[in-house]
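[job 0412] stage=fold_complex status=start
inputs:
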Amino acid sequence: MKANYGYKDGSGEFFITIDTDKCNSCGDCAKVCPPKVIVMITNDYDEVVPAVAEEHRKKIKYDCAPCKPVSGPRNLPCVAACKPVAIVHSW
Amino acid sequence: MITAGIDIGAKTVKVVVLKDGKVAGKAIDLSGFDQRGTSDRLFRKALAEAGADIKDVRMIVATGAGKGEFPHANDPVTEVTADARGANVIHPKGRTVISVGAEEGRAIRTDAQGRVVDFAVNEKCAAGAGAFTESMARALELKVEDLGPLSLQSTNAVPMNAQCAVFAESEVVSLVHAGTSKQDISRAIHDAIASRISSMARRISVENDVVLIGGVAKNKGFVESLKRDLATEVFVPQDPEFISALGAAHIAFEKASKQGGN
Amino acid sequence: MVEFWRWKEYRWTAPDADWKNAGIISCGIDVGSVSSQAVIMTDGNLYAYSNMRTGSNSPDSARRALDWALEGTGLKQENMHFIVGTGYGRINIPFANKAITEIACHARGANFMYGPTVRTVLDMGGQDCKAIRCDEKGKVTAFLMNDKCAAGTGRGMEVFADLLQVHIEEVGDLSFKVDKEPPPVSSTCVVFAKSEASALLRKGVPKNEVLAAYCSAMAHRIFSLLERLGVEKDFGITGGISKNRGVVDRLTKELGITSLTPRYDPQVAGGVGAALFAKSLVEKQRAGQVAR
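[job 0412] stage=fold_complex status=done
writing structure:
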């Protein structure tokens, strides 16, 4: 399943896509996420996969901002930690 | 030498006229439905205040979302450039400029000369701009000017969940129904917008001094929330809504000076 | 004061059905931020449902929706073998046996409403917009949900209905009563779009044209969300906005595919999905008991 968490508003599109079919359920992405935007859940089909925590879903543009400085190196720990490349940020 | 800066914003138009680099006249009014007419009228008004005639004006620089609406302007500059320049004139120690207008929020890092080093903009979404506080004031049936003083009297930090001005209006109404005081709601409103503005500012890494400009800077409740969120002092110049126009006027002055003559 | 954004509540019972012969009576309750539905199914067939406005709290809204769906059927809550709660208020339904996300329920419900060929479902609710892709069993293969921003949701349309003083149910038809299709409202943000619309009205642009400009802006916004997900046929639209052809017709035109006609009321798709999950859970329980 491609789970797209986030939103599109007047200022842009801000989605984190998690491909649960690629995910190996290791949980590393959740461990390395500084603001705990990414958490592990058991979804409706009983798979243990990462998801964007409910309380962050409407503000990932802001909550993910520390990992996305305007200039300088861009370091997304969740993406870097995911060996099967199951996490993509849209912005 | 007479130079002028005009900032044609989404909600208001501001004009600053300089005589030899010093402020000699200024004017502000709502943009209305005829930005061009309003701009022209305010330009003449500020000139009159400076005791200058239109033919004396050496250079005019326009900025703001409607900068193309002023045919007299010699040159437009971006809002970011004008903000940075204006803030530097008024507070030379400033390195971070936060500008919050009716429809846009901007965070700019500048060097000692007021040149732009880095910037981030939140546009086209009311949640990160002055339009947010205006919508909330409407929901509370208050004037937007009243929100600031009210929020300074707040005793409780109440969280707001909605990130959209439209949904936040409903949330404010529910808070009223739940018996939350208008003081606490006002603070919640300012905390909400301040947290969005400060996370935008952190993307360009905040460096002291922080200068806050734009119409929303007049709202003391918002200023307090922003200070709290950034955990640093925030300098608000007098007449913060004119700083961008002031920056444009100084850019005009420098350009005209380089061209020589008087 | 006339509240132009208001819509009518309703309930329905299958005309020739009798629940007394049913092996499994399952129930799904979808408590949304604006409306709540209770759906009762007998052996996987739609038996009765209600659609009401959500009140100030989820437990009461769920209770009222269920009571109304049961009304006149002779059924009682204790006759339900399993109740699944879904929607925004799903975790606050004390009498539900399980909570399942609205994404999973909508996919399953769409599979029932449109048949197993449906691959993409768009649900346009009161305060959110969901796009879901699913397989032939109604299992989600991809989804996207936007509940942060009012643009593209029923709430955005309500703001416009109110501004233009048009009944929400008439918006779609009126938006086609124009001499020519106007350009869409340029602002995405509802607050800014509202200012834009006020400016148009003051310039003397007719009301219907302003409605058309907003419907087409909304259609385009939803189109761009669907592009992220990719649209595969067959395509179905559910939720409150699915009844607004001002948005739906413009959207399907832009997509270049028509939407399926649902066999039942698309407003209750989430509740139907929940009731179907409830039925499967009963079957699972019973199979487990036999095995033991």
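[job 0412] summary: Chain C has two domains: 10-113+266-291, 116-255.
[job 0412] exit 0
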